[in-house]
Write a structure and sequence with these properties.
CATH superfamily of the largest domain: Periplasmic binding protein-like II
Low-confidence stretches: 1-8, 12-22, 225-255
Mean pLDDT: 77
Radius of gyration: 20 Å
Organism: Undibacterium rugosum
Distance between the termini: 11 Å
Number of helices: 10
Protein name: Substrate-binding domain-containing protein
Keywords: Signal
InterPro entries: PBP_domain, Phosphate-bind_PstS
Order of helices and strands: EEEHEHEHEHHEHHEHEHHEE
Family: Belongs to the PstS family.
Length: 255
Amino acid sequence: MKKLFVKALLTAVLCVSANIALCDNVVTVNVVGVPYMHYVYKMLGDDFNSIENRFLLRYVDENANNFAMKVSAGSADFSVSDIPMPHNELIARKLIQFPVMVTAIVPVVNLPGIDSDKLVLDGPVLAGIMMGDITTWNHASISALNPNLSLPSLRIKTLARSYSSGATLAISTYLAKKSSRFAKNIGVGDSLKWPADVQLMHSGEAIETALSKTPGAISYVEMDVGNIKQMKCKREFPRTLQREQWLNYGVTLPA
């Protein structure tokens, strides 16, 4: 499966211990973070608590725009984000950030009649789909990459995020390197102005739901431990298989 990698970043106060709450000899750590990492940190907290039963980790799903403010104000001990904070803001708020986890961003499709992991797409074709230049699944450029598949003449329905997202930052960074038109017309960022035909969704969960219910749909999702557990998307719909080297992300796909 084709994979994009984006670092999940943890933003912490320089002196984290100053914000950790002590109550009845129980150490409480308050965390704000992106929803899809909630399950991961719950597992980490539960595992640590099984060793030291006076530890409590509280993870609250939040909008990334609020992370720095809450950590700086002391209402959260640290935050978990997939969007790196600019260096000047880190300095101004006296915060530090460092990578703690790697998660894969993968194109996902709902294509009736095509088995899971059989569809082949490359970077330029995926860019064309996301820009709206390629509008049907039996388009010549897709058929050329899939000579052994009987592709349906189904209209492509592209889904994207309407909000600031590390997944959008990761996939747009890749597509801009593979397509000069994408770089010029769409650009790179965590929140983009997509073509009018792209359906914008308010959350990752909404994208997962829309994908499973919309034949011909394509989007990009985080294939991390949290999503696999929460969404079960591995078993719900087929995904794209892309045969090339993603050198910028350190992954070589099998031939």
